Amino acid sequence: MNPTIYLDNNATTRVAPEVLEAMLPFLRERYGNPSSMHAFGGAIAKDLARARETAAAFINCEPDEILFTSCATEADNTAIRGAAEFIGRGARIVTTAVEHPAVLQPARRLKAMGHEEIELPVDGVGQIDLERLRAAIGDGPGTIVSTMWANNETGTIFPIEAIAQIVKERGAVMHTDAVQAGGKIPIDVRRVPVDMLTLAGHKFHAPKGVGMLYVRRGTKLKPFMLGGHQEGGRRAGTENVPYIVGFAKACELAQAGMAQEAAALAPLRDRLEAGILAACPNVRVNGDREHRLPNTLNVSFEYIEGEAIAYRLSDIGICISTGSACASGSLDPSHVIRAMGVPFTAVHGSVRFSLSRYTTAEEIDFVLERLPPVIHGLRELSPFGPGKGPTTFA
After folding, report:
1. Which residue, among 232, 233, 230, has the nearest Cα to 241 in the 3D structure?
2. Which of 35, 46, 151, 286 is deepest in the core (most CB within 10 A)?
3. Cα angle at 363 between 300 and 296, to 5 degrees?
4. Angle in degrees, CA 235, 179, 105, rounded to 5
5. Per-residue buried b or exposed e for 247-263, using 16+ beta carbons within 10 Å of the residue's own CB
6. How far apart are CA 42 and CA 47, in angstroms?
């Protein structure tokens, strides 16, 4: 039996033991409803308030600017649709071609409802043109800009501070999906003037089922979830206290170990990248290699299918992905890779390796030992490639 080598941490992460320990009392004896009037519930309300303070400190904001949600998808929808509903008819939504579906699909739904939507293209490394952004915003009021902080597939980091400055100069509303940045690189909303920001706990060692939306004081937003007074009247529904406590603990751990973790992961990522390029011909690295997350590597193997690579590696205990986990099951190539203009011969062969604090050098070496024979074997089966037939298509 091969060990499980988990390199799909941009899809989800293992829950940290410290996070689980922090959650357990709230799944056992501390089960009260924080909205109840009795002392048992009131004590839980204080625990919830402490968790909110910890989450706020993680991004340098005030506790009352934090909304806890069920996931990042809910938070993204709340930000984009809630801001558009407040603006009313004729809102303009400016986003990019490489956003997560949790941003693209709400934006496209709003377009179908009569609002304006603009999806900015990206260049070959996945970066946007800031002048095109400026032109797309126009006069500003009535415009919502939503760009990710870091791309979930390639790890490319957008110049989010410069983007936010442009948006604020124009008087528009700024949202950033910071799901992949959270826990990997520092986030400071006092330095980067975004109006709204999304995080997901399960991307940095909290459990699935809890997310967070930062809403800067004064930002106009219609509630997305109705039916209760929770979260300051901005998100109805009894708070998921065990998971919120776990989220806060994960924030605390990430804050304490982020620099050390990045310093350890970037060399492992680079070791994996160099080993793949040395052992496998006809490979390209996707994304901005100068501005990317320390844990993420996206590569395209020409003339073969990324799904076949993922399945073959899964058979020997290596877990990777071909893109966003939310798009798994689709046979279409990644919209992110296509938007970057990756050639047809490589776009279908794109795979993502994403590391975590639990990834070891021994695991990377195991991948580098087992991956090249998989690639060689799949290319032997492929009808395409050098000397095998057509490599360009109409």
Report:
1. 230
2. 151
3. 40
4. 70
5. bbbbbbbbeeebeebbe
6. 9
What count of Cα atoms within 13 Å lies in the side-chain half-sphere of residue 79?
Answer: 40
- Partners of 157 in the beta sheet? 150
| CATH architecture of the domain with residue range 5-12+258-381 | Alpha-Beta Complex (3.90)
Burial 327-363 (b: 16+ CB within 10 A, else e): beeeeebbbbbebbebeebbbbbbbbbbbbbebeeeb
What is the spatial distance between Cα 346 and Cα 348, in angstroms, rounded to a whole number? Answer: 6
Cβ-contact 13, 356 below 8 angstroms? yes
Q: Quick one: tokens of 94?
A: 């400016």
Classify domain 17-254 by CATH architecture.
3-Layer(aba) Sandwich (3.40)
Q: Tens of pLDDT along the chain (394 residues)?
A: 678 999 999 999 999 999 999 999 999 999 999 999 999 999 999 999 999 999 999 999 999 999 999 999 999 999 999 999 999 989 999 999 999 999 999 999 999 999 999 999 999 999 999 999 999 998 878 999 999 999 999 999 999 999 999 999 999 999 999 999 999 999 999 999 999 999 999 999 999 999 999 999 999 999 989 999 999 999 999 999 999 999 999 999 999 999 999 999 999 999 999 999 999 999 999 999 999 999 999 999 999 999 999 999 999 999 999 964 554 555 678 999 999 999 988 999 999 999 999 999 999 999 999 999 999 999 998 777 776 765 544 3
326 in catalytic set: yes
Compute the distance between CA of residue 56 and CA of residue 313 in angstroms, rounded to an integer: 40
Q: What is the pLDDT of residues 126-162, one digit of tens each?
A: 999 999 999 999 887 899 999 999 999 999 999 999 9
Task: Name the E strands within 66-172.
Answer: 66-69, 92-96, 116-120, 143-146
The catalytic residue among 71, 251, 280, 326 is 326
CB under 8 Å to 374, separation ≥6 — which residues? 309, 312, 313, 316
The single residue listed with the structure tokens 């203009």 is 341
